[in-house]
Amino acid sequence: MCFPMILWLIEFLPYLWVVTVPVYGSFCGIDLILRISILLYIYIIAGEIVPKSMHSLVPYLSFMLWALIVYFVPVNLIPWPMIWLYDKLLWVTGPVLMITEIILAVNFQMRCSQMAIDRIEEDDSPGFKLIIILFSSGCYALMASFLYEIYSTGSTTHYLLLLLVLVMCVTVHNMMWMSQDGILCDAAFTCLCTVSILYAMKEETTLINSPLKTPSTWFQYDPKMSMFYLGTFIFNSTVDSAGMAIGFLMKFLRPFFLLTLGVRLYSILYIIEALLKKDVLQHDFSMDSDEYLEEQITPWKSPLTMKLAVVFMFTQMTSNLFYESQGVTILNTPPFNLVRNFYPKDIIFGRIVQMIGVNCFYIWRLSNDRMDLNDWFS
Question: Which residues cross the membrane (predicted)?
Fold first, then answer.
């Protein structure tokens, strides 16, 4: 009875390990986050390249490899150039995924609402009508809550952006009423996304303009330590350093931030699935079965892809959050630092593009809903 539970824990060990990344990062800094992330990649990939003849031994080999890495491997084993390149990769892909994730979230919601409408047209189901009404009401309630929070604690710049957001919301609802295929919950969810983006920008700029104090443990830990000994170092840290580190960790544990983790993971897996399907259909025309595509190449059923995506998402979101908690943005790096003194401190350009992008996508999707859509959004 206990043996299957142990095997289950070993299978999910990467997911349990990645949860420790924010803890190590809050006490020891962003550099350690990147190093642990690369060690996780090595551990995951090593577990997948075991020969098929040894698959019965995989759980034991996996656990032994994990124990060796955690207890013996020093975190500075990863060369600095690799850390630098990995950090820049996270920075470059961040804005792209930021825009993609919100578009895919709206796309997913519109597909669900269309399926609900189809069911209503088939059998006039009152249950689906009630779901649409309740979902729309929930979106408007959350939107009102975010609007009140922005109005109560925002700056003058945020008030001006709030007017822009209200104009976008009116435009979205106007397009919804004009379209024959417009659905209320789609417009409500799009407006909620727009307002939540403004709310996220307000929270981020507040954090950037009022950075947290950096714990002394960020500069005191020995990079020659393994993760096990770093854990004991964290456990023995001073009260002052622990208090500052917990401040970083609490930023990570905010419900709104945890929700964005799920949205980011969905967008990464969606992109991987779309790329894999496109590659298979272009290079192997004999394998055009939907069943084959669903069972063989979807990342939702691939342990390797899922684990790598979770590690990448966790690393990217955690490192970005901790950079913001230190007041570090892209404007601190050349050549963007030349315009830092002229750039409004309460605006994040990527968030503005995200707001405009999600509204443009909704209008485009609304006008193309009954047409043959691109494979990326079907």
Answer: 15-45, 57-77, 89-108, 128-151, 157-176, 183-201, 227-249, 256-276, 347-364
